[in-house]
Each structure stands twice: as C-alpha cells, then as structure tokens.
Amino acid sequence: QLQLVESGGGLVQPGGSLRLSCAASGFTLDYYAIGWFRQAPGKERGGVSCISSSDISTYYADSVKGRFTISRDNAKNTVYLQMNSLKPEDTGVYYCEAADEMRLVLRLCVPQFGSWGQGTKVTVSS
Fold first, then answer.
1. Exposed, middle or buried by CB within 10 Å (0-12, 13-18, 19+), for 38?
2. Could you give the residue ranges of the DSSP H alpha helices within the chain?
3. What does the alpha-carbon distance between residue 126 and residue 118 come to, in Å, rounded to a whole number?
4. Integer distance in angstroms from the first to the last C-alpha of the chain?
C-alpha cells in the first residue's frame, strides 16, 4: 500500500497562489505515476493533474490548464502542485495518490489504488 501525506492547503483570495506537496516516507516514488484529485462540496472526486513516473507525460484537467503545474522531485520523494491564479471553483479537498500509468498514456488521470488519506483543504474566497 502506497501512503502519502498532503500539505500546503489553506485559505487564499481569488488570484492568489498555493503550492501543494505530496510526500512519501520509507519508500521511493520513482516507480509511480502520481495524481492530484479534488473533491469539491457536492461533487464527485475527480482528477486535477497527473504526472508519469518518467516525468515525461502530464495531464491537466481543462479547468486548470495554464494555471496549475505538476512536478516531481524524486530526490526528495515529493510531488508538487503549483496553483496560480486561483478561482473560487478551485475550492475543495486535494488528495494525492498513485495514478494509473496505463491510463495516463490514454490522457486519463485516475487513481491506481484508490486508498485515500486525509488530503489538504484549499479554500479560495474573498
């Protein structure tokens, strides 16, 4: 079972920025594609961004393209999600999880295992 810890969420005004971190301890992330998934109030959890294990392929939901950037630092066992120009509709709890690498090839961002942690809450409001 892959266990990851999310951090970096908070309350920001529209147009602000946050950087979320997804960190692993005791094992390496080198072999895993990783995804960020968001659950907004009253909505199903959906893929926001995924990055392949090779750091070659990335996926972004249409709603965040041009504003969010996913990256990984394998030396630190960490995946990041830089979120700029935040909008109220970005509000939700963000979870990181191993992503299905085969489906990422098909331009889909879905979890590999679906074993969710606590996530980190992002609230964008004036």
1. buried
2. 101-105
3. 25
4. 39
Question: Which residue, chain included where needed, has tokens 């392949």?
Answer: 52
Helices (H) and strands (E) in the chain, counts: 1, 10
Residues 71, 75, 76, CA angle at the centre, nearest 5°? 75
What SS3 class is residue 75? helix
- State both tokens at 87: 């909008």
Q: Is residue 112 a contact partner of residue 95, using CB atoms and an 8 Å limit? A: no
Amino acid code (one letter) for 64: V
Dig out the tokens for 79 from the structure. Answer: 């995946």
- What burial letters (b/e) apply to 79-93, b meaning 16+ CB within 10 Å? bbbebeebeeebbbb
pLDDT digits (tens, 9 = 90+) for 14-48: 999 999 999 988 778 888 999 999 999 889 999 99
Q: What are 75-91's pLDDT values in tens digits?
A: 899 999 999 999 999 99
Tokens read off for 31:
């072999």
